[in-house]
Design goal:
β5, α6 and β6 form a beta-alpha-beta unit. This protein is of the alpha/beta class. About 35% of the residues lie in helices and about 20% in strands. The chain is globular, with a radius of gyration of 24 Å. The protein has a nine-stranded mixed sheet, sandwiched between helices. The two termini are about 25 Å apart. The protein folds into two domains: about 140 residues, 3-Layer(aba) Sandwich (Rossmann fold), CATH 3.40.50; about 270 residues, Dihydrodipicolinate Reductase, domain 2 (2-Layer Sandwich).
């Protein structure tokens, strides 16, 4: 299968925070890959902006190192020599006047203007104000804002209000890289482009849904930052909430940005408050090879969770009675992100009285985001051979690397796809302001209850599947977590 690349129009992209980690690990290597794929015109401008004083050539040299290290290319790759002239650099004082006139002089009138805020949220307002007041951004410009979008409902509202002073909602692209993953978008295709699943996609046929985002790394190196957020702010309120919405949303009337986001918003507003008995918080302990969370966070009294599991209910006709189980954590057994939809068992088995072995098991659709992106549908078949009706569960596997050939194995990174959507002006895979606020409105009471209780998170061993209490959360419902494995 040959992938189709649709070039974007000519653009000027300014990356604020261009000397930072995200720019060098993801944004610049991603832009290089899109250039090599033929999606970016060779007339485009990519302008780095940061406080560091350096020349265009210095910035290009640093960009080349990043592309070689994180983009998987060789130093002498001819495409690198073709791409680097697109890059330039302007030293900018985000809180002052330095550099803004120079930046304005480099912007072209007929190109699409996009501005990527790869900086701390505290600088969003300063940059937005100076872009507007210096006449660099206009009503057709687009800005990309990185998470966190506030740390609670109050700060999220303040952030939205501040950006709205200078940019309209249709100009603001709140990026969540999970929505740029190929499998996440394929979830919508599987649901809404096939008659097979949608009639079964409800509480009548689905027993429960599990969403797992597991990481093997701890928080060492970013412990002081992470300790102020924790797993629920870092993962549940944004990434996992978006996955939950895509699974549970009603079919939109059209694959249109606001139509899709309207349906996602309805899901968030239908979420029931989560009771304390349905939440487990955990904190990883030290192992033989390293420190535990308390040492990594540099806070021996920390009550911040590195793991959270919860049972979530959605109060609407489609999902009444079907629980959604969410879990995410650091220092777990394997690095994996997946959604498992477990269907109900057949109401009556015709095989139990026929001398069979192997009772029918529930069908299960597993959507794997990482690693090895793909989908897996487990169905029951007869085991080959004589000797009676022996049933066995087998997977119908669609690993993209196998099913789609070399193009499937070399799919665009999430950031590549999302940045190209910004240039196209397509907001479908970006969060709207009211969506962000609704997510915080649901999350805040959970966090506030934890802080008021002053309870410590449950300890769990590094390299395990999480706290024992999380297992009991499922066992109470006569269910089991799927095994965490790479």
């Amino acid at each position: 299968m040959v992938s189709r690349v649709i070039p974007v129009d000519d653009f000027d992209l300014v990356i604020f925070g261009a000397t930072g980690d995200l720019a060098h690990r993801k944004i610049i290597p991603g832009l290089f890959r899109r250039f090599v794929a033929g999606q970016i015109p060779d007339t485009a401008q990519i302008i780095g902006a940061a406080r560091t004083e350096q020349s265009d050539d210095d910035f290009r040299a640093e960009a080349a190192k990043s592309i070689v290290e994180f983009g998987g290319v060789k130093k002498d790759d001819p495409a690198l020599a073709q791409f680097l002239p697109l890059l330039s650099y302007v030293p900018i004082d985000a809180k002052g006047d330095g550099g803004w006139k120079e930046l304005k002089s480099r912007m072209r009138k007929r190109a699409i203007h996009a501005f990527y805020f790869s900086v701390a949220p505290a600088l969003f307002g300063d940059i937005a104000e100076r872009l507007a007041k210096n006449g660099i951004a206009d009503s057709k410009s687009r800005i990309v804002v990185e998470k966190p979008f506030g740390r609670d409902l109050q700060t999220a509202r303040a952030l939205n209000k501040m950006l709205a002073q200078y940019f309209a909602e249709e100009q603001i692209y709140r990026i969540d890289h999970y929505l740029g993953k190929e499998t996440v978008q394929n979830l919508m295709a599987v649901r809404f482009a096939n008659i097979l699943f949608e009639p079964l996609w409800n509480a009548q046929y689905i027993d429960h849904v599990q969403i797992t985002v597991a990481e093997t790394v701890g928080v060492a190196g970013r412990g002081s930052y992470y300790d102020k957020s924790g797993a629920i702010r870092d993962m549940v309120q944004n990434h996992m909430m978006q996955l939950l919405c895509l699974i549970a949303m009603e079919p939109p009337y059209h694959f249109d940005p606001d139509a899709v986001r309207d349906e996602k918003l309805k899901v968030i507003r239908a979420l029931e408050p989560v009771e304390a008995i349905d939440i487990v918080r955990g904190q990883y302990q030290a192992d033989e090879d390293g420190d535990g969370y308390l040492a990594d966070s540099e806070n021996p009294d920390s009550r911040t969770e590195s793991y959270v599991a919860m049972k979530v209910r959605i109060s609407n006709w489609r999902w009444q009675g079907t629980p959604f189980y969410l879990r995410t954590g650091k220092k777990l057994r394997a690095r994996t992100s997946e959604i498992a939809i477990t269907f109900k068992e057949p109401p009556h088995s015709i095989f139990e009285d026929a001398g069979t072995s192997g009772a029918p098991k529930a069908n299960e659709l597993v959507i794997r985001l990482q690693p090895n992106e793909g989908m897996n549908l487990k169905v029951m078949i007869k085991e080959p051979g004589p000797g009676g009706m022996r049933l066995v569960q087998v997977p119908l596997d669609m690993t993209f690397a196998d099913a789609l050939g070399p193009e499937g194995a070399d799919m665009p990174d999430a950031y590549e796809r999302l940045i190209m959507d910004v240039i196209r002006g397509n907001q479908t895979l970006f969060m709207r302001g009211d969506e962000v606020e609704a997510a915080w409105a649901w999350t805040d009471p959970i966090i506030n209850a934890w802080e008021e209780s002053k309870n410590r998170p449950e300890p769990y061993d590094s390299g395990s599947s999480g706290p024992e209490e999380a297992l009991r959360l499922m066992h109470r419902d006569n269910r089991r977590w799927k095994e965490i494995r790479a």
